[in-house]
Amino acid sequence: MIQRVAIVGGSGFIGSRLALDLMGAGFQVTIFDREPAPSELVPDCEVIPCDILSDLRLLPQIREFDVVFLLAGVLASRCREDPALGWETNVLGTGNVLRELLESRRVRRVIFASTGMIYATPAREYPLNEAAEVACSELYATSKIAGEAMLHALAQATGLQSVILRFFTVYGPGPASGERGHFIAHWMERVKQGEPLIIHGNGAQTVDLVHITDVVSGCRRAMEVEMPPGAVRTYNIAGGTESRVRDIAQWMQQVEPTLRVEFDPNAYVGSSRRFADITRAARELSYEPGVSPEEGIKKLLKLQLQMG
To answer: Could you give the number of structural domains in the chain?
Structure first.
């Protein structure tokens, strides 16, 4: 019976929404994060201020939980700005947490947040399934590949059940600022400030949008799936649909007709195509996205405009 859940990085966008959901379901949730927790989590959720790089005296407390979500990390845009911080946090910090789990007698499952950015693109075949080729295309992807490898090693050494969730483009309401690297959140902020959306390249590049409620659903199902000791399972958590960046901008213009869109042909574009195969998650986790990209984007923008 799962009772106690730790969320390392629980003050962030995904972690905070997951914490709220788990508390509503009756779980005892503790957040480990160097950032303050959102106000709606306090005081009902235990929050332990902790930097996985420096507060190593606090990390042994991780051993006392049934399930550990490892969501802490520096996102892609910040990794490009500060490679040293990205590598230290995503690799050394992740290693610090996993080292403590080597000594745990209670933790039975660790769930690790990876990314769809690890897949090599352009790929030989789309949509991208979990067996598709991966590539160290940039530091963020490389750090997540390293994290996945460490999780495999931990499972082999301890018999811990391990789940790797490869998130694609996550969006939705919550404490997610554009400065922290969330693509859609950054656009929402520009709309509220009356600034134009800047599209890198010609906007033909695609993303696989997944709403935060569907991400939380995937996380919950990863907690509950039956697994033997020492097993490692990897799942794409995505919307399972492909959206062009310029189409997303058009959906937003349909909500806010005064919104301007500008193209920057010289900006960094990254991958030209992201499109996930979610068949395995559907089959093994009964995961099924409930929010379509166009519906989700329009509802989110309306909510942001109402909030001012």
So the answer is: 2
Phi and psi at residue 241, in whole multiples of 5°? Answer: -135, 160
> SS3 for 196?
coil
**What domain range includes position 164?**
4-168+212-237
Residue 281 near residue 217, CB atoms below 8 Å: no
Residue whose C-alpha is closest to residue 101's, from 65, 66, 63, 75 = 63
Residue 111 shares a structural domain with residue 122: yes
Whether 159 has a pLDDT exceeding 70, the answer reads yes
Residues 100 and 192 in one domain: no
CA dist 128 and 139 (Å) reads 20
**198 & 71 share domain:** no
Calculate mean pLDDT across residues 73-101. 95
Are 265 and 140 part of one and the same domain? no
Q: Which residues of the chain form beta strands (DSSP E)?
A: 4-8, 28-33, 46-49, 67-70, 109-115, 161-167, 169-171, 197-200, 206-207, 209-211, 232-237, 243-244, 261-264
